[in-house]
Specification:
The structure is a homodimer.
Chain A lengths: L1 E7 L12 H11 L3 E8 L3 H14 L2 E5 L10 H9 L3 E3 L1 H13 L13 E3 L3 E3 L8 E8 L2 E8 L3 H19 L4 E10 L3 H12 L5 E8 L2 E10 L2 H18 L4 E3 L5 H11 L4 E5 L5 H7 L8 E6 L3 H8 L3 H7 L4 H15 L3 E7 L14 E7 L4 E7 L4 H20 L1
Parallel strand pairs in A: 1-2, 1-3, 3-8, 13-14, 13-15
Antiparallel strand pairs in A: 4-5, 6-7, 7-8, 9-11, 9-12, 10-11, 15-16, 16-17
Helix pairs in contact in A: 1-5, 2-3, 6-7, 8-13
Chain lengths: ~425, ~425
Amino acid sequence: MIAEIIAVGSEMLTPYRQDTNSLAMTAELNKLGVTVAFKTILGDTFQHLVDATHIALSRADIVLFSGGLGPTEDDLTREAVAQALGVGMTRNEAVVEVLRQRFAKRGLAIQEINFKQGDVIDGAELLPNANGTAPGQWMATEYEGRQRYIALLPGPPKELTALFAEQVRPRLQQVVPPLHIAYRWLRMAVVAESEVDARTSPIYLSYPDVSTTILSTQGEIQLHFQCAKPTLEEAQERVNELLSRCEHEMLDHVFSADGESLEQVNLLMLGMRNLTLATAESCTGGLIAERLTNVPGSSRSYLGGAVVYADHLKTLLADVPKELIQEHGAVSEPVARALAEGIRARIGADIAIGVTGIAGPGGATLNKPVGRVYIALADGNTTEVRELNLNGDRERIRWFAAQHALVMLRQKLM
Amino acid sequence: MIAEIIAVGSEMLTPYRQDTNSLAMTAELNKLGVTVAFKTILGDTFQHLVDATHIALSRADIVLFSGGLGPTEDDLTREAVAQALGVGMTRNEAVVEVLRQRFAKRGLAIQEINFKQGDVIDGAELLPNANGTAPGQWMATEYEGRQRYIALLPGPPKELTALFAEQVRPRLQQVVPPLHIAYRWLRMAVVAESEVDARTSPIYLSYPDVSTTILSTQGEIQLHFQCAKPTLEEAQERVNELLSRCEHEMLDHVFSADGESLEQVNLLMLGMRNLTLATAESCTGGLIAERLTNVPGSSRSYLGGAVVYADHLKTLLADVPKELIQEHGAVSEPVARALAEGIRARIGADIAIGVTGIAGPGGATLNKPVGRVYIALADGNTTEVRELNLNGDRERIRWFAAQHALVMLRQKLM
């Protein structure tokens, strides 16, 4: 079956706001075996809404509306869907009574316009909304001789998500042919999308029954696998088999087959080995610390460290010899090494990361361009230093430097 | 005039990806006085594309396509638009030649399918793409007796943005009735949206010719003002007047009327007063440092600091007396104070921030719930400490703690 999602609200036609409700609904619909084929976003204009409803009902089995159920004059979804279907609306007195009580409780006078939230399209079922005033509506109907399912949902994500899960999904489950969906994903760091595609496409193309999606985000490539079968076991078997083969092929880059982030994987491995970590960051300015400490429970393994932005702090907080900075420059292999070794010794951590580099846009020298970063990893016995030459703007260079540092750490802990 | 944006690509119908090209295009269209009335998102299905083209041409003066111009079998925008218009396509040999040379340069064999990127819809103009292989197309045509303007643009944001600015906007400017648009915005930190609305709506409602949008992002409220007039002076005058009145009303919370971020404003003020800053962060784990150092040139005023996640680091790096932690606990007013004063003295900064708190989900005690955060600001003479009780998850608590710290700093520097 095919679905269309219609997001209603003029604010989503500005440069500042986007429809995001459709993403979570799409995930849920896909799990039922329903494909989202169209998304339409339009403003609070009655005739646009009526026309869009006709278009959606002519091309999709399931039409989900989000937004336009509130009490203001701009909230027109109910009226427009009724008009498109050529039916009337009936005011539900129980909804009106609840609204009256809500207003009375707060000592507010209720205005006539609020009652329109109780208008139910003839033939539709009311979906009670525990998180807000506007109930949703559900309807199974014929349109031009074809069976259609329609849901009207409120726009606020919290209300919509709950209503969808509790009221719409069970109703869809009864009308959508049963399918069992297995889904897993692989996460890889600092590798090119083209390389992942070149190495894995010969594998995943031989699984035409598994839908494989390759996604690239900042310094990370993800392979998403999804398969629908009459039984869950069959679906899982296919997804697991394909995932294993792709994981084996990309073993040098895969950091997670279960969804954990790169930070989580590192903290997990540190915890298992009972090791502690410290950081001394110059160009990343606390980004590595921030990413690690964003994981709940990170305090078990991550002790802390220094943000040594000014050169004298490299000496003051991480014991980098002043002469080393004078001789080689703050952005150099020896200074990165000294940062990692210095902060490790100072703090008494088992492992330490040191980072120094030029994030730009200023700061480049004749020998050292913007994007030159040195990352050091010290464990008390050996210190490994990597030189990077990164592209992009300041934010990208900082992010990729942190990403590379976390990959180095993971490789050490494997 | 009314525009519709059609984003083409099956990946945008998954739960993982969204159309974002439309946001920047909407901003540019609005500046020309064009309203975006519809956005349609659909996959790489030929008939869906043809139908959507018909629908768009029947309801919008300007139809902008993004995506579907590449060389693969999934790239069908050209073909679909030609089909909807009932015209053919002609292969442009100059484009084919450029493609040949590009492939030859990289020593790759070119395949026949690549040449379709040179197919130009009859009646359309080719828009050269300096950043990629797929050129755009522009067309002024009649559809059902009405004048329509069509642009086909490549999906990659960098290519689309450049093509839109350099090729599409000037063409639209010639056909759209001239309007001059003034636009400004106010940024406010750690204040409730409802408070901003209650205080400013009596003002902005008296400017019906200015479109005012109130937006809430993490710990920040924004007021956007836009006004279209026959002359730029008139539009600017209205926007400036309304902005000034709202700024005056919200003076206690406004940190920027020119778009700068809270970090930028603080660094600017530090720079103007020739002051240096240091940080000692426990629960924010480097987030304040990371946010400050993400601003180019921040090294002029921000020296660095310590991430004192483990308790012994509070003593080791920021000279917090061990006894103070034992007596009051690591999350306490005296420890926040000692962190700020300690790191300030240690590093020799003019001003220092100290943060300690419970970001959760674990770590709460009988007296100290998750969300309890102490922020201290020391300048050598006085140390101000604020106790916060924040709601939400770990990420939100950390972000709001950093946000409050930056607001405190700004208030001190005013």
